[in-house]
From TrEMBL:
Region annotation Disordered: where it falls in the sequence: 468-491
Family of this protein: Belongs to the cytochrome ubiquinol oxidase subunit 1 family.
Name assigned to this protein: Cytochrome ubiquinol oxidase subunit I
Superkingdom field: Bacteria
Compartments in which it is found: Cell inner membrane; Cell membrane
Membrane topology annotation: Multi-pass membrane protein
């Protein structure tokens, strides 16, 4: 029943589906690992119990998120050999070593210290445990470093030669790793991960502040129906919720404007090396010799090469991209049609990302106003805004990833290897079968994982928050001599 479908399109859908599922977990765990390191460091420095409470609270969530990120990432490497074998063969001499460097540095570092971080608080001492937490945080960053270097090379390839068999052969590893778009993409993506984590942490803190306020508003009643003389201890606003909310709002207020600035620099770099992508992002089908407008909204029609019902600001695009109102900007009319990316997708995903970025900035500024007026923990509107913005970082990360990857089309290696020439020679039914299997398994497995994470977040952190220590009633050794229980001998 799948014979009439396009195998290439199905392979692209499968890769997009799996990478989208995978990307949201590292985007959260990268920032969360660093947040855990900050919490533990503050606990060691100040001795305040609230930081240890938050560390143990978020450590459980990190463990599940990290595990789902690793599991979903393994699938990605297999797809290179199944659906994209031609790409793997052509680009393998460059991409293969970079992926191996990630395993040898980031994965080994994380695997070596993750167990100590999760279960070693009472076994290795405070300082050594803190070093393990730092090692895991550094490992997540190194992992992002290598993966983004690989991805950036696919966008701005350099430092290679083409072999007689058509393979991309490394000629200058420094040029390959530090390709022109890599520094901008690394900064933009890592900041996005930190901001994503701050928004989730802030949303959880705001949720529990709202719950505490509702508990205070609700009258306490004795079992016999008479009003309670003493309010419940849970009626007071929890210190842990206030602390995490305050830390998250500081992060949003400081990092959101930095991210907008970093995104602008990344856009200018993209204009230099991938102008067709920027043309699609801006919706510029036609060239503008005397200043290009900024199209805020509209319906791109790729077949007609126009944006219908557009709302625009005259010459604002030239001001943003060239810092000159009258600067000329080329349009897609200067690019061969077969080299156009899918404009409607890139156009709208870019606007989702930018729009959410400005909402994040608004949340940060709102929190600063509340903090200046001493109402950070009292303004319900701010807390509701923070709860709504909780998943916005993940959505923005996915929108940015779609803008980046769909905007690179129709190439896998920009300007050199087309996507249509990168796929394995598979029939549509084979790809469709694996796609259906992925959809069913992913929604079942990761759906349960996400549900459990949300359940953990719904529980307010309490002083004495249990960690991830071993169950005292369970096995205490995996090797060695375990004393047998004493047994009285029969007379």
């Amino acid at each position: 029943m799948f014979d009439d479908l396009d195998a290439l399109l199905l392979a692209r859908i499968q890769f997009a589906f799996t990478v989208s599922f995978h990307f949201i977990f590292p985007a959260f765990s990268i920032g969360l690992a660093s947040y855990l390191a900050v919490l533990e460091g503050l606990w060691l420095k100040t001795g305040r119990e609230v930081y240890l409470t938050l560390f143990r609270y978020w450590l459980k969530i990190f463990a599940i998120t990290f595990a789902m990120g690793v599991v979903s990432g393994i699938v990605m490497s297999y797809q290179f050999g199944t659906n994209w074998s031609v790409f793997s063969d052509r680009a393998g001499p460059v991409i293969g070593p970079l992926m191996a460097y990630e395993v040898l540095t980031a994965f080994f570092l994380e695997a070596g210290f993750l167990g100590v971080m999760l279960f070693g608080m009472e076994k290795v001492g405070k300082k050594l445990h803190f070093m393990a937490t730092l090692a895991v945080a550094v490992g997540t960053f190194i992992s992002a470093f290598w993966i983004l270097s690989v991805n950036s090379w696919m966008h701005t390839p350099q430092g290679f030669t083409i072999g007689a068999n058509g393979q991309f052969l490394p000629a200058d590893w420094w040029a390959i790793v530090f390709n022109p778009s890599f520094p901008y993409r690394l900064v933009h993506t890592v900041i996005a991960a930190y901001l994503t984590t701050a928004l989730i942490v802030g949303a959880v803190g705001a949720w529990h502040l709202l719950k505490a306020r509702r508990s205070e508003a609700a009258p306490s009643v004795e079992p016999n129906g008479s009003p309670a003389a003493v309010a419940s201890p849970r009626a007071s606003t929890p210190e842990a919720a206030r602390t995490m909310f305050s830390m998250a709002m500081w992060m949003a207020a400081i990092v959101a404007p930095i991210q907008i600035f970093a995104g602008d620099l990344h856009g200018l770099n993209t204009l230099e090396h991938q102008p067709a992508k920027v043309m699609a992002m801006e919706g510029h089908f036609d060239s503008h010799p005397n200043g290009a407008p900024l199209i805020l909204f509209g319906l791109p029609d790729q077949d007609a090469a126009t944006v219908r019902y557009k709302v625009e600001i005259p010459k604002a695009s030239s001001l943003i991209l060239k810092h000159d109102l009258d600067a000329p900007l080329a349009g897609l009319d200067t690019v061969a049609r077969e080299d156009w990316p899918p404009v409607p997708i890139v156009f709208w995903s870019f606007r989702v990302m930018v729009g959410l970025g400005f909402l994040m900035l608004g949340l940060g500024l709102f929190s600063l106003l509340a903090r200046m007026r001493g109402k950070l923990y009292d303004w319900s509107l701010l807390h509701r805004f923070a709860v709504v913005m909780g998943p916005s970082g993940l959505i923005a990360v996915l929108a940015g990833w779609i803008t980046t990857e769909v905007g690179r089309q129709p190439y896998t290696i920009y300007g050199l290897l087309r996507t249509s020439a990168s796929a394995s020679p598979l029939d549509a039914p084979a790809v469709a079968t694996s796609l259906i299997a992925f959809v069913l398994v992913y929604f079942a497995v990761f759906g349960v994982g996400v549900w459990y994470i949300l359940k953990l977040m719904g529980h307010a952190p309490q002083i004495g928050e249990p960690g991830l220590e071993a169950d005292p009633d369970g096995p205490i050794r995996s090797a060695g001599i375990t004393p047998a229980p004493s047994v009285e001998r029969a007379p």
